[in-house]
Amino acid sequence: MAYKAPVRDLTFILNEVLEIDRYSNQPGFADVSSELVGQILEEGAKFAEEVIAPLNRVGDQEGCKWVDGKVTGPTGWKEAYKAMVEAGWPALSALPEHGGQGMPSVVAMAFGQFTAAASAAFSMYPGLTAGAYWGLNANGSPEQKAMYLPKMATGEWGGTMNLTEPQCGTDLGLIRTKAVPNGDGSYSITGQKIWISSGEHDFTDNIIHLVLARIEGAPAGIKGISLFVVPKVFVNEDGSLGERNAGAGCAGLEHKMGIHGNATCVMAYENAKGWLVGTENKGMAAMFVMMNEARLGTGLQGLSIGSAAYQAAVEFARERLQGRSLTGPKNPDGPADSIMVHPDVRRMLLEAKAFVEGGQAFTLWTALQADLQHSNDEAEAQKAHDYMGLITPVLKAYLTDKGFHVASLAMQVHGGSGYTEHFPASQYLRDARITMIYEGANGIQALDLVGRKLPANGGRAIMTWFAEIDAFTAEHGGDETVKPFIDGLADAKKKLQEATMWLMQNGMQNPDNAGAASTDYLHIFGLTALAYMWSQMAIAAQKQIDAGSTDPFYANKIATGRYFVERILPDAGAHLAKLKTGADVLMAMPAEAF
């Protein structure tokens, strides 16, 4: 199966739904037009389809190799990475002062959907570098920025984030990696980090590690963690590369269920030289810039793997002949009909299609909010900033849950063939599974949503979200052509509001109630968000139909959206019912009874 980037879908969202030409007066959008975005996506699609996608299976089968601390990637990956750097793709959204092209996040996220779908493991190399780039840009000193960011912006150097250790995952207050001042402004970093994506490879001349560690004598827990920049190779004052940072190295590779093409490393630091980034004991705040960037990227990755799996399932369903249609043969001259005629196969494909296309819009809508945080309008900037805090855990968790679900549906469509390695369904399912776990497991995202994001600023973000949906449904409620979408959105929003009130009334008196409700609450939120996206897409598509367009793209978009509204959106009611049962049924059983 040859991956095909969904250029038409994304240009429809960008140009006809989000109408990005309206934002030409916003910072970062001055040189952006729908025509330019179309050209970027066309070229990006070619690169993803022709250069990256053919390497996906190679990466899965070969994986990476570790020999005496050196890691080599799968056949052809180093060359493909070099081609990507030479074409300027990693620099798409990096800042112009570092040699970047300064494109808005919404454009970069569109291209990112192509690369992550073409090969999730490959896309992680530039993805991790981008997270480290933005983290260092937000927190580094002018000297650190000048030294590292230009080469990271272009992708000539890689970047990582080093958080997890063998004894701690999410609870980073337990980290043991220590930093000892050397007396010259540098520190000696000692400790072990695990699960470090892109931690060592042969694609770049240097890798810039951002490492969480505790300075000797610092307070215990989260309040005593600092962030350090630890380069693989030291950089001279003139920008040239110097000696190897002898104390920083890869002690081995993790053996994983999927994403075999990415080098997931055990990093060993033995008196490695590093420099403090930002302020002592404020490392977690600094790292959160990278973590939030990574959470959005992970949501995109989960969705994108699902989109590729869906494409493979459609291709298989069209070609696979098995059984006859319940209403009579549709391929009378052949031995059987294609499995496309069977209602349950269509259920699986439509469910996948509805999640993928709704998720694509949700991803780009959120990326636009990231851009609008820099708006000239203070109120608009504040709203966008509030939304980014509120929406990030929803996007990460909901889209990775559903991306995996789509990959599972795709395997089911393939039948027994999907369970073999002769077809791509197995790799998509294996690759998608990690997205629900890393960058904060989805249960942690749900706790973050109900415990931190909802009550922040007196609930300002969620109240703004409710008001926006109310205004939208009021504006379009009288349009009979899109009434099912508007009614569905209004009902989902009502259930989300009811769930929010339940949490306010029951979560504070018993925190376990909030924890027990968190995942169902996040899923109601995700369903409401996708209902909002599908309403906007239906309106944009109907506008073209009303104007006389006979392009089947628009009618098919509305038909897919109707499936979402009629067959998926009702799940919000089930999640609400489960949420209201509280914590009793979860917490009553003694631990030893499990």
Textual characterization of the structure:
- The protein is α+β, with helices and mostly antiparallel strands and 594 residues long.
- The chain has 18 helices and 11 strands.
- The chain has helices at 7-17, 34-52, 56-62, 77-87, 105-118, 120-139, 142-154, 283-319, 343-372, 378-414, 425-433, 442-453, 460-476, 483-506, 511-546, 552-568, 571-579, 584-587; strands at residues 65-67, 70-72, 158-162, 178-181, 187-197, 207-215, 226-231, 233-235, 241-244, 248-253, 264-277.
- The strands form 3 sheets. Strands 4-5-11-7-6 form a 5-stranded mixed beta barrel. A two-stranded antiparallel sheet has the order 1-2.
- α14 (483-506) packs antiparallel against α15.
- The chain is globular.
- The chain starts with 6 loop residues before the first helix and ends in a 7-residue tail after the last helix.
Give the helices and strands, then pairings.
Elements (H helix, E strand, L loop, with lengths): L6 H11 L16 H19 L3 H7 L2 E3 L2 E3 L4 H11 L17 H14 L1 H20 L2 H13 L3 E5 L15 E4 L5 E11 L9 E9 L10 E6 L1 E3 L5 E4 L3 E6 L10 E14 L5 H37 L23 H30 L5 H37 L10 H9 L8 H12 L6 H17 L6 H24 L4 H36 L5 H17 L2 H9 L4 H4 L7
Parallel strand pairs: 3-6, 4-6
Antiparallel strand pairs: 1-2, 4-5, 5-11, 6-7, 7-11, 8-9, 10-11
Summing up helix and strand content along with how strands pair, one would put the structural category as: alpha+beta
Helix content: 55-70%
First and last CA, distance: 44 Å
Overall average pLDDT: 96
The largest pleated sheet is described as: 5 strands, mixed, barrel
What's the multimeric state? single chain
